[in-house]
Amino acid sequence: MTGGRRDGRADLTPPPGESPVVVLVRPQMAQNIGATARAMANGGLFHLRLVAPRDGWPQEAAYPAASGADVILDRAAVFPDIRAAVADCHRVLGTCPRPRHVITPLLDARAAAAELRAVNARELRVAVLFGPERAGLEADDLAHCDTLVRYPLNPEHASLNLAQAVMILAYEWWMAAETTPPRQLQTHATRPATKGELEHFLDRLVAELDAAGFLHNPPKRPGMVRNLRHWFERGEVTEQELRTLHGVVTELARGRMVRGRFAGEAPPVPWESEG
Amino acid sequence: MTGGRRDGRADLTPPPGESPVVVLVRPQMAQNIGATARAMANGGLFHLRLVAPRDGWPQEAAYPAASGADVILDRAAVFPDIRAAVADCHRVLGTCPRPRHVITPLLDARAAAAELRAVNARELRVAVLFGPERAGLEADDLAHCDTLVRYPLNPEHASLNLAQAVMILAYEWWMAAETTPPRQLQTHATRPATKGELEHFLDRLVAELDAAGFLHNPPKRPGMVRNLRHWFERGEVTEQELRTLHGVVTELARGRMVRGRFAGEAPPVPWESEG
């Protein structure tokens, strides 16, 4: 923990086109500054500026909440006012939880992230302002912003923690460039079974159930077989799971033979058929 | 602060089709439980269950971080294990920050929110499990889940605070049903100007600039007028702003006349033309 820099601007100015600058305006609690750094790192934002932090800067109390994102705190630059903090920025967005009587384009967090990516791609330097914990940015602060950002959230409980507000923007910033498919089947060691593998298993299962007398009701048999098939067709069974199920059938069939031979139990009750 | 209920299940079971149940599995810090309740309220989630909280429940220390979402804490139900906590649920999703060797459908937060809304619309009861702060859900916990959720975030710094993880899901839950347009121009007291109003203003401005001698270079005049028009065409000027600009032109023109009459100043330097 080397502590923040009070002076720096020139050397801390990210090249245009780097990730956006997060500006905390008059932040009050060191813990929130630390939690902001953690949220920034989570979402791939690395440039933090502080405007007139209430308790000064650096503050050791910020570091535990940063959970390893220390470098963001170490390099945080401090400015006396917004004008100085955004002087080298080409665009300034400001978060604005409540409606205001100002005439400024208003984006939700997702549209703001798309805008940040677009500005970024043009190699411009862009800042996003977040207001103090208690009341957010004031009208004079918002007048520095060319664009406002408001998150659609429960209007009955719209008061966001400062680091939560940063988290949502950082998350949307990351998501705006994310290419991972939104839906996957998590398979490391195996693959979905082919339909041929599934048919082979179902043939075996039905044969064993026939042998066991489970499918002994001829009028109901087609529906019962279909029900079994429906279940096994769902859920993209994997090749590994099919091998396990083959083993289960083998073991249960052996048990039946053993029981049938030695215990003379009653035959099992067939499942209810949809037919 | 009435404290949580240790017993409750039957009376705390949300009707199927209500908002999803958030289940914190072995949560460690009361402050995180409180911050979770706040994030839930922000995103319109109201049902909280706790599985074996480390320090027991209720805990007064949770309430300050809830920032008014006390009712969620008051009504939080405590269960000894996951099996009991999800017994009345039809679907169970589990957050899973790191890849695991399990074969389960994996959704990102946005797809998970869409899935939650879809399950909800079918009037089924659905739970989302969040693991303990240090390490998340264990393999035996994940075995209770029919679906896993992983947020795409910076892999270099993927460790999310527990309440941040809940916040992202709650935010996506809310967004999945949000109908506010993602981009608006925030206008309360006025409306965008019509093109006719804008033309009227530009005519006046150009006439005053002609009178002032600002557009005195005939070859450059068309390009300069076009430049002015480009600027005023951008940014969806409002009717109110046009009225202000009319006043500005009037005042500046009056100033010019005064100065021209009494001070005999040099004519202003024309702006550079693109032509």
Brief digest:
Two copies of one chain form a homodimer. By secondary structure, the first copy, chain A, is an alpha/beta fold. In chain A, about 40% of the residues lie in helices and about 10% in strands.
Termini separation of chain A comes to 71 Å
| Major pleated sheet of chain A | 7 strands, parallel
Which class of secondary structure composition applies to the elements of chain A?
alpha/beta
Indicate the overall shape of chain A. Answer: elongated
Spatially, the strands of the biggest sheet of chain A line up as 3-2-1-6-4-7-5
Greatest contact pair? A-B, 55 and 55 residues
From the structure provided, what is the oligomeric state, counting identical versus distinct chains? homodimer
Question: Which spans of chain A have pLDDT < 50 for at least 5 consecutive residues?
Answer: 1-11, 260-264, 267-275
Task: List the total number of helices of chain A.
Answer: 10
- Overall strand count of chain A: 8
Beta-strand content of chain A: 5-15%
Secondary structure: helix percent of chain A? 40-55%
Overall pLDDT level of chain A = 86
Radius of gyration of chain A equals 31 Å
List the helices and strands of chain A in order: EHEHHEHEEHEHEHEHHH
